[in-house]
Amino acid sequence: MGRTHRNEILLRRISPRPRFQFDKLPQSPLPARMATATTTSPRALAPSKPTLLGGVRGLDAAVSLRLHALFLPVPRLLLKTLEIAGDGRIWLPVPISLLLLSASPANANASGAASPLLAGLVAGLVLDLILVGLVKVVVRRPRPAYNAKDMYVAVAADHWSFPSGHSSRAFLVASFLAGGGFRPREALFLWATATSASRVLLGRHYVLDVVAGACLGVFEAWLSNLLLRFVCAQSTFLVC
């Protein structure tokens, strides 16, 4: 017994011990990931289909960039002049000042009434300022990436592109004055169209921004005319 016991102890000392315990090694997360990937729905792996709105925006951006590049030879000074001619910093204070002057005792007519044309124009310009600002904040479409950094930003809403405030303002003024009997009408709408086109050529706006702004301006002129007729029928402040 003693010899057998010593042989067993000797064999234990001589026999090599395992250096690693494979049953305690951490399992690789790869099989679990592969299992998750195989159980993923094919719809989740499929690329998302482009929406109609996204396609329209992409086409609008491509056409706008093409027009901007095509008309780069146009003198920038001319485009900047059209930009200033449609600026709200001119079109809002000037009609308000003229309206106040027309209602002053020194310049008012015999009844002391203000000019209805100026009153309607000021109402339309204020309405345009509110509507354009609201739509810009709601839509939040960024301006073109190639827009130069020489643009004046009056309020925070001016950082957004849709719709064009210059375009809406120009077509509001042209439509309202044309409806009020100003001649020649062609000169008014030629100025409004050139001002709107300059927004795309300067890189300030996309084409859809300008088209939407023009439609909004015409609608605002129509609304201002309705408001003016209502006020003329109810008030003696204006002589219509």
Would you kindly provide a brief summary of this structure?
Helix content is 65%, strand content 0%. It is an all-alpha fold and 240 residues long.
How would you describe the overall organization of this protein?
- The chain has 240 residues and is an all-alpha fold.
- The chain has a domain at 71-235.
- It has helices spanning 2-14, 30-39, 42-45, 52-70, 76-85, 88-91, 93-103, 116-139, 165-179, 185-201, 207-234.
- Helix 10 runs antiparallel to helix 11.
- The radius of gyration is 36 Å and the shape is globular.
- Residues 30-38 have low confidence and may be disordered.
What does the secondary structure layout of this molecule look like, with pairings?
Elements: H1 2-14, H2 30-39, H3 42-45, H4 52-70, H5 76-85, H6 88-91, H7 93-103, H8 116-139, H9 165-179, H10 185-201, H11 207-234
Helix pairs in contact: 5-10, 7-8, 8-9, 8-11, 9-10, 9-11, 10-11
Transmembrane segments: 90-108, 114-139
GO molecular function, one term: sphingosine-1-phosphate phosphatase activity
Pfam family, one: PAP2
